[in-house]
C-alpha cells in the first residue's frame, strides 16, 4: 500500500467517524426530545451517553464487517488458488497428451 493510499484511507476513516458522530448526535437529540421532564443537565447526559453508545455500536459493526471481509478474502483466495492449480494440472495434462500423440505419430512415421 502506497503512502498516498494510506493517507486517503486515513482521511476516509476520519470522515466516516465524523459523519457517524453527527448521526449519533442527531439520533440522541431525537431520542431525548420527547423526554420533556428532563432538566437540561439530565438531557445533556442522556444525549452524551446515547451518542457514545451509538458510536460504540458503529465501531463494533465496522470491526465485524472488516473481520468478515478478511474471512471472505481468505476464502476467495483459497478458491482462486485451487482453481489455478486445477487449470495448471489440466494444461500440463493436455501438453503431455499432445506430446504423447506427437511421439506416437513420429514413431509410426519412421
Structure commentary:
- With 110 residues, this protein is mostly helical.
- It contains 2 helices and no strands.
- The protein has helices at residues 3-32, 40-109.
- The mean pLDDT is 93.
What Rg do the Cα atoms give?
30 Å
Listing every helix as H and every strand as E from the N terminus to the C terminus, the arrangement reads HH
Give the mean pLDDT.
93
Number of strands: 0
Question: Can you tell me the overall shape?
Answer: rod-shaped
Largest sheet features: none
Low-confidence stretches: none
Structural class computed from helices and strand pairing: mainly alpha
> What is the subunit arrangement here?
single chain
Question: What is the strand and helix layout of this fold?
Answer:
Elements: H1 3-32, H2 40-109
Helix pairs in contact: 1-2
Structure summary:
The chain contains 2 helices and no strands.
What are the salient characteristics of this protein?
single chain, mainly alpha, 2 helices, rod-shaped, 110 residues
Amino acid at each position: 500500500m502506497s503512502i498516498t493510499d494510506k493517507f486517503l484511507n486515513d482521511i476516509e476513516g476520519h470522515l466516516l467517524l465524523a459523519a457517524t458522530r453527527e448521526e449519533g448526535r442527531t439520533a440522541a437529540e431525537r431520542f431525548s426530545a420527547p423526554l420533556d421532564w428532563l432538566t437540561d443537565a439530565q438531557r445533556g447526559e442522556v444525549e452524551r451517553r446515547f451518542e457514545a453508545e451509538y458510536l460504540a455500536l458503529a465501531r463494533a459493526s465496522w470491526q465485524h464487517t472488516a473481520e468478515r471481509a478478511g474471512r471472505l478474502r481468505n476464502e476467495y483466495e483459497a478458491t482462486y488458488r485451487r482453481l489455478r492449480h486445477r487449470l495448471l494440472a489440466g494444461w500440463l495434462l493436455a501438453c503431455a497428451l499432445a506430446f504423447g500423440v506427437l511421439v506416437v505419430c513420429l514413431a509410426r512415421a519412421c
